[in-house]
Here is the input.
Amino acid sequence: SGMWSWSAEMVSDRNLRELNLNPDDRRLALTLLLAQQLMGAPRHLGQHPGGFVLTHDRLDDLVPIEPASMADRQVIEWDKDDVEALKFMKVDVLALGMLTCMSKAFALIQEHKHDDLSLADIRQEDPATYAMIRRADTLGTFQIESRAQMAMLPRLKPRTFYDLVIQVAIVRPGPIQGDMVHPYLRRREGKEDVVYPTPELEAVLGKTLGVPLFQESAMKVAMVCAGFTGGEADQLRKSMATFKFTGGVSRFKEKLVSGMVRNGYSEEFAEKTFSQLEGFGSYGFPESHAASFALIAYASSYVKCHYPDAFCAALINSQPMGFYAVAQIVGDARKHGVEIRPVCVNRSRWDCTLELVENSDRHAVRLGMRLVRGLAANDAARIVAARADQQFESVDDMWHRSGVPTASLVELAEADAYLPSLGLQRRDALWAIKALRDEPLPLFTAAAERERKTIAEQREPEVALRQMTDGHNVIQDYSHTGLTLR
Here is the structure.
């Protein structure tokens, strides 16, 4: 408990005595030895949400499998290093949340705007999209939506796809700790000269202005400048894709520095190069990885730029994901001129949908009942099915025809979902629901009345309820839907 960090070294006798422990105790020595052997081991079981393993034969004949914490999911008990040692094919499918969002956005665009889009069909190098990205107007997009990315975008000013590849890769722990960010920006802005000691190094790092931003760059530098073999360079790559305490890049320092000096590079330059590569020990991107992410980042930005209504609806329908809450997504869409319509018992479906704005070719986003906290999807489906032929005319009519429990009606009332089409304020709707009851009346009369949908109600006198203040309504909006449109 007195150690605030891990170390490859044993605890000193002095530390033990300070903790009132006897360093000559055999049991303590054995405990410390076992603890040292655990250094660098995984602290808990992690599961990649999109990772899977492919084998020629049945997987359960080859590896132990156990149930995951999520229902109907399984995980293998071996880690990625074990799988790699046995030459199994391991595939990590990334960006599942944004790919889901893009699929939903494309479907909305096809349905309401009749534009057939896919990742392959999006216009490349669109000036309007890059202008939006340079303004850091990227809330909700993929990879370039974080505060750190937004702070970097106006400085890096992406204008081409490869600029976006660099943008994705540069705001990472690896390049930042390797002191690569500021040299790259200074050179890009013309504030620092780009100097290559040899033509071979220029061929390797020309695209990134002399800064090794990617794992592939580090491999090529090691091979071209330090004489690494392909196998040794691959080991260097693997060490850059892991955390430092599992081995790291440090064990390659002597070979890299001495190899560069032997090939005519100064020791200072070799040390600087190694310190940059060592930063990858905290994690640096492969170029292919960054390019794949940049493609999705560009596609999401394109849809946000040209179809902000569909993008907003699809993004909400794909929650939870990303950095931002629904309230922020809705607020950003309104800044882009998108009309947002509230949850409505007669017009909302479970998901957010698009509605044509009258006398216009624009579409508004109708918020879905998925935003009503506490409302079950099955009850929402029953409501939508019940109003298919005719809209609800009152709370009582909705209750009779949909058959949902009054608790669900209360959740909708708390979300102010009766106001848009029925004109009922929160308190009026809640008062009307108080007159309804889910419990059956005695014996056969109740059964017959329920069959005819004519269950007796508790008739209440008309009352004039004091309405909530605007401030109270805003509080209730956030409490029951997570946002407000007031």
Q: What stands out?
A: The radius of gyration is 30 Å. The chain has a mean pLDDT of 83. The beta strands are 51-54, 65-67, 74-76, 89-92, 340-341, 353-356, 363-366.
